[in-house]
UniProtKB/TrEMBL annotation:
Keywords: DNA recombination. This is Phage integrase family protein. The keyword Lipoprotein does not apply. GO terms for biological process: DNA integration; DNA recombination. InterPro entries: DNA_brk_join_enz, Integrase-like_cat_sf. It comes from Acetanaerobacterium elongatum. The keyword DNA-binding does not apply. One of its GO terms (molecular function) is DNA binding. It comes from the Bacteria. Coiled coil: none annotated.
Amino acid sequence: MGKKSLEDLVQRELVKMQAFGQKRHDFKMDGEKSPYIHSYATYETYLKQCLQFASWCKENYGCKTPLACASYIKEYLQECQDQGNSAATLSTKGAAIAKLYGEEKNRLGFNFPPVERAGITRDRDVKPAPNAMYQTARDFVAATGLRDSKELAKLQVKDVYRDNGTGRLMVHVNQGKGGRPREATVVRAGEKVVLDMLAGKTGNELVFKGFSNNSLTENQLHAFRAQYASDRYRELEADGIKISKHYGPNDIYHCRKDQAGEHYQKAIMEIVSNDLGHSRISVIAQSYLWKR
């Protein structure tokens, strides 16, 4: 057999790390992060970023193996920054490359700029929905907080249920971010949207059957996850929620810089974060609660 191309070698290394559907926590050792990739979505992102890095190394230095590319990580990231890549994009690139080499991002030798709320502008300028199908997907996400094709496309009718204890309409996500399952609470104002989507469908049938991947992924749905986060926060605030798993009524999150003076209850933030499939409350403060 002939020699493998640089791109093939990069992909092979990332394939070795696949642990889809397995919990990240089960692989953590001695406080270190899991060495594996736990969701296909993350794998796709990391593969894309690592192939871009490998292509740059091959074009500029003739590299033929991932090992040969390792010497140019800092230079590559610096060039990306000089070209105007945002702090969030640089962080994603760094995470992908770090995973390829089994290293921590902060040990790559590059000084990553902090990811700040003001610099996160994903889907904040939303275009009008081009048709009813797009609008339906947007309304559903605003009601449930689900991600685009990674979660919506796999959602089955049986995954939507009424909680016996609270009476709330819930959505079970089998495999969310990091391969983790979760239960997302449908906002009260969005229950009709969800139930209308289920009408006439049963059991294992896909809720979004007939929707193309493009109609889901190219729909600026992150903005509607932000809408969900804000509505869910206000709903919990009105319900008088003061306590969550890790936080009490006196635990307050104080925003800084462009949002100085804003503050949130950490207990509510934790609940909303869990609904969205995030483990850190700082993520929703930076990326989701801008519509509050």
